[in-house]
Write a structure and sequence with these properties.
The strands form 6 sheets. The protein has a 3-stranded antiparallel sheet with strand order 1-13-14, with no helix packed on it. The protein has a 3-stranded antiparallel sheet with strand order 2-8-7. It folds into 3 domains: 2-28 and 256-479, Four Helix Bundle (Hemerythrin (Met), subunit A) (Up-down Bundle); 61-108; 118-210, Zinc/RING finger domain, C3HC4 (zinc finger) (Herpes Virus-1), CATH 3.30.40. Strand 3 (125-127) and strand 4 (134-136) form a beta hairpin. Helix 13 (393-414) packs parallel to helix 16 and helix 15 packs antiparallel against helix 16. The protein has 16 helices and 14 strands. The radius of gyration is 31 Å and the shape is elongated. The chain has 482 residues and is mostly helical. It has helices spanning 21-26, 40-43, 55-73, 77-86, 91-100, 102-108, 151-163, 183-189, 193-210, 259-271, 326-330, 343-387, 393-414, 416-421, 427-452, 458-479; strands spanning 2-3, 51-53, 125-127, 134-136, 140-142, 148-150, 214-216, 225-227, 235-237, 244-246, 283-285, 292-294, 301-303, 310-312. It comes from Molorchus minor. Keywords: Coiled coil, Metal-binding, Repeat, Transferase, Ubl conjugation pathway, Zinc, Zinc-finger. It is an enzyme of class 2 (transferase).
Length: 482
């Protein structure tokens, strides 16, 4: 089977968006006379500042905050840690509350100054409620709740909790007591080095997870912690393992869709996975000769190997007339009378809408994976060209840059579909779908040119790369909510 993408168009797409002429003047992507004078970081909607830190650097950052709060409120570092953890490391908020009412801050954080019950002050021996063993009073310890237990029982309690992965959330042993054990109290009762190390590691993880400016890199076996002063849904890329993720939620990067919407979408896809199984196949029938065709590349312009008919993989429409209708292919048409239909009709319409967006989401996800195979084939093709004396490796490097940009654009395009699915109908959605369609058309055009490029095509391909990236950044700039 052979496949092709949008017919080669020099520069801008020739698609006729007669209903959207008002957008064309505003999005004149060729007018870049002012852009050259601007710092690229200021015009990149995905840019934000972050640092990748090692564990010791994070420890130093956390300890500086602990020491600052401890100095301001004149409290122990251990108590400062509990307060910071329970208030998401907001020093200003803690300071304000503490000065207004110190006791309420301590109680709300489930800590208070520890005291020994007055009834025990004259007692030499007491019985531990856990092990029921009489021991001297100096062998007993308690938290602010005044529940007293022997040292051995505290040690056993802490070790059991730590082995279950609990650290900052370890509470008093007394039934229904919610008072938390500070770090210094726990460490005082842990004698085994491996237990102390495990406890401190778990505490470190809890502190990082509770800190709004810190995020663990989600890469496998990666110890890097990303730090940023801005909690934005922007792409953070680990300098160690190169994993890219959304800084705000820690999941796969999902611009322009926001964190809450992508969670709803992924949950819906998981819940409706059986319903959507029939559209996850890699094959479709040629609309002309009905022979079965397998999609083995990232592009949507297909050519039947049997009858040479050109058609769109998504809507199966004739590709010759597809240029003027591509916008309609990616856009879902709402039924204006659906509110007056029966419940069953509304359910069918809802499923139809979901499948429309899911199929395109899944198609671009698969296309990204197929682009990896395209890159492998590209390397083999370039190697063959070099061996044949048709240029050097340096002459062909621009193709790898183009392939990387293609993957970047297709990745963004994939995440435009959950965004569009949850958008309310109206002018803003029409504008979004217009930009979405233009980006999709330029991606198809770029993919076509990459697969067929020669050394003499470098200028034309770089121009197409510029167009595709500007389409992508324009869409993100208008619809990326951060």
């Amino acid at each position: 089977m052979e496949e092709a993408m949008t017919s080669s168009q020099g520069g801008e797409s020739d698609m006729d968006y007669s209903d959207n002429e008002c957008y064309d003047e505003y999005y004149n992507i060729h007018d870049d006379s002012d852009i050259e004078q601007i710092d690229p970081r200021k015009i990149d909607p995905e840019y934000f500042e972050f640092r990748c830190l090692l564990e010791e650097e994070v420890d130093r950052l956390l300890n500086e905050t602990v020491e600052a709060l401890s100095s301001i409120l004149h409290i122990s570092p251990s108590l400062a840690k509990v307060l910071l953890y329970s208030h998401q490391w907001n020093v200003n908020e803690i300071t304000k509350k503490f000065r207004e009412n110190p006791t309420s801050v301590l109680v709300s954080s489930r800590i208070e100054p520890a005291t020994t019950p007055s009834s025990l002050l004259l007692t030499r021996y007491i019985i531990c409620p856990v092990c029921v063993t009489p021991q001297p009073l100096d062998k007993f310890y308690g938290l602010s709740c005044t529940h007293m237990f022997c040292k051995d029982c505290w040690t056993m309690h802490f070790e059991v909790q730590i082995n279950q992965g609990i650290s900052t959330g370890i509470a008093c042993m007394a039934r229904d007591c919610v008072v938390l054990a500070p770090e210094d109290f726990v460490l005082k009762h842990l004698q085994r080095p491996n237990m102390r190390e495990k406890y401190q590691q778990f505490c470190f993880q809890d502190y990082v997870k509770s800190h709004p400016e810190l995020r663990f890199c989600p890469g496998p076996n990666c110890s890097i912690v990303v730090h940023s002063c801005e909690m934005k849904a922007k792409r953070a890329t680990c300098t160690q393992c190169k994993t890219a993720f959304c800084f705000r939620c820690g999941c796969d990067y999902h611009a322009p869709t926001d964190c809450q919407v992508i969670k709803k979408w992924l949950t819906k896809c998981a819940d409706d996975s059986e319903t959507a199984n029939y559209i996850s196949a890699h094959t479709k029938d040629c609309p002309k000769c009905h022979i079965c065709i397998e999609k083995n590349g990232g592009c949507n312009h297909m050519q039947c190997y049997n009858c040479k008919h050109d058609f769109c993989w998504m809507c199966l429409g004739d590709w010759k007339s597809h240029g003027s209708e591509y916008y309609e292919c990616s856009r879902y048409r709402e039924n204006p009378n659906i509110a007056h239909e029966s419940v069953h009709a509304q359910a069918r319409e809802a499923l139809k809408k979901y499948l429309h967006y899911y199929e395109r989401w899944e198609n671009h996800s698969k296309s990204l994976k197929l682009e990896e195979q395209t890159l492998t084939n590209l390397k083999a093709r370039i190697n063959q060209k070099v061996m044949s004396g048709l240029g050097t490796w340096i002459d062909w490097q621009y193709l790898f840059t183009a392939a990387n940009l293609l993957a970047k654009c297709r990745y963004t395009l994939q995440y435009t579909y959950p965004y569009a699915y949850y958008m309310d109908a109206g002018p803003r959605k029409e504008l979004f779908e217009y930009q979405q369609a233009q980006l999709e058309a330029e991606i198809e055009n770029l993919s076509w040119k990459i697969e067929r490029a020669e050394t003499t095509d470098r200028g034309e391909l770089e121009n197409q790369m510029d167009i595709a990236e500007k389409r992508r950044t324009t869409l993100l700039k208008d619809f990326l909510d951060v």
